[in-house]
Amino acid sequence: MDAAESGAVDPNRTLLRSASRHSLEGTDAKRSWIDNRLQRFVVQPSSSKRVFWEFMGLIMVCYDIVIIPLQLLDPPEDTFYFVMSWATRMFWTLDLIFSFFTGYISQAAQGMIETRVTKIAVQFVKTRLALDLTIVTCDWLEVVLQAAEGGAGNGNAFRLISMLRAIRPFRLLRITKARNMTDFVLGHIRSEGAMIASYVLAIVLMLISMIHVIACLWYGLLVSTWGSGKGSERWEAMQGSVTERYMYAFHFVLALFVGEHIMLPQSISQRFFTVVVLIIAFVVGASFVGGLTTAMTRLQIIASQRSSQFAALNRYLSDCNISRLLSIRVQRNARHALKERKRNTPESKVELLQVISEPLRAEIHYEVHSPLLTQHPFFKLYNQINPVGVRHICHATINQVNLSRGDIMFSEFEVPVQPKMFFVVNGHMSYSRGFFDTVKVNPGQWVSEAALWTTWAHRGSLQSRSETQLVAVDAQRFINIMTTYPTLHAHLYGEKFVNFLNQAGHTDSLTDLVQGEDMQKIRVTQVFREVDPLFEPPSDWLKMRRSSVVSDGSLQSAAAGAKSSVPESDTRFSFTGLIPDAVHGIRATAKTLTKRFRVMRERLSTRPEVR
Question: What is the value of pTM for the model shown?
Answer without folding.
Answer: 0.58
